Amino acid sequence: MNNETDFMWLKNTTEIRKYANIALWGAGKYCQTNLEKFIEALPTIVCILDDQCPFDSIKNIPIVRPANTDAAMDAIVLAVDKQAIAKVKDRIKNDAQFSNIDIIPWCGDEDIPPAKQQNPYKELFTRILSENINSREQQIQLSLSYRAMTDSLAIRPNFKDIEFRRFSQNGEDGILLYIFSLIEPTNRIAIEMCAGDGIECNTANLIINHGWHGVLFEGSNERVEKGVQFYKTCRDTFRLPPKFINAWITKDNINDLILDCDIKGEVDLFSLDMDGVDYWIWKELTCIYPRVVIVEYNNRWSADQSVTVPYADDFVCDGGLPDMPGYFGASLAAFTKLGCEKGYRLIGSNRENTNAFFMRNDVGADYFPEVEVKDCLSHPYAIHQHKTKYPMIKDKPVVQI
């Protein structure tokens, strides 16, 4: 911990930007617009610690209440105003777990400076994020930039640095663009389980903006009908819209449902987000050999817990939203073991640690090395989920993997 005499009052973000992780503390006096400016100027913010902010998150940055101080253990604490300085110092003084954290006061009334360009693709990437949904040209430019950057061994960004969403729930659109820019697609076939209406899902951006062929499975007939109508009228897909299958997925029908679509063998992408018996479905999948697999994992279980919910054909999730208990799916450790058995390695996750990306071992090893499970459960949101939600499900039945 810095001594009081060591605290610096800063007029800009020059000193702050050198830190890899920042927790923005004491932001209550700022409205959402100003907080968004902070996030844009300081792209390494991992969480916003605030008692009064009415939002759950801002631009994908989770709001964590200061009572959960350990959520910022590995972050730099950035206090926005003078009142917050005293509160922060009082909250964490004499606590050994915060001994390596710097507190950098901020005179919060100055204009927010523009973010510093740190990578060769940064300007292009920022422009893409500012565009609306019709961003094919910008995405193509970014994809070409990724290839040129990687070929020259200039820099290889972390997944959290290249996230963006066009149709995905989180930043999966950006991660998938990056992945398939480097390994390049083969047949451009994407299969998604529990795709909803197919408009907000992991495969929509690839289908609409990059000409992929999608096969989308969904249990709700109403959502299927909505998706069918959308893609029939979308100018980019009306000639060859993705195929929707209205079905309840079980381990006994998963292979037949895919084979009935005349698909088998290698496909580029398989996405699994059932909020249910996902582990057992992937385990039974044998008719296709995806190059990349996305699975939603339950971050309420920690990195050393290799468990899944027991299999049941009629399993229904016990609340997957942030304010619900969340008894569903499997831990990342369990999925990683299963992936290893099937010839896949874990290569990363989205920023909030909810969706994991696996790559087949014979694909892209030079570009995408294996990462550890704990690295995909280190975000403050995942830490918060384990601390507050795991106690709600710890007595539920599980199968040890």
Structure in words:
- The chain folds into two domains: 4-105, Rossmann fold (3-Layer(aba) Sandwich), CATH 3.40.50; 122-400, Rossmann fold.
- The protein has twelve helices and 15 strands.
- The relative contact order is 0.10.
- The protein is an alpha/beta fold and 401 residues long.
- The protein has helices at 32-41, 82-92, 122-130, 136-151, 159-162, 172-182, 204-210, 221-233, 254-259, 278-284, 332-342, 380-393; strands at residues 22-25, 45-49, 57-58, 61-64, 76-79, 103-105, 189-193, 213-218, 243-246, 265-272, 288-296, 307-308, 344-349, 355-360, 399-400.
- It starts with 21 loop residues before the first strand and ends with a strand.
- The radius of gyration is 22 Å and the shape is globular.
- The strands form three sheets. The chain has a seven-stranded mixed beta sheet, with helices on both faces. A six-stranded mixed beta sheet has the order 3-4-2-1-5-6. A two-stranded antiparallel sheet has the order 12-15.
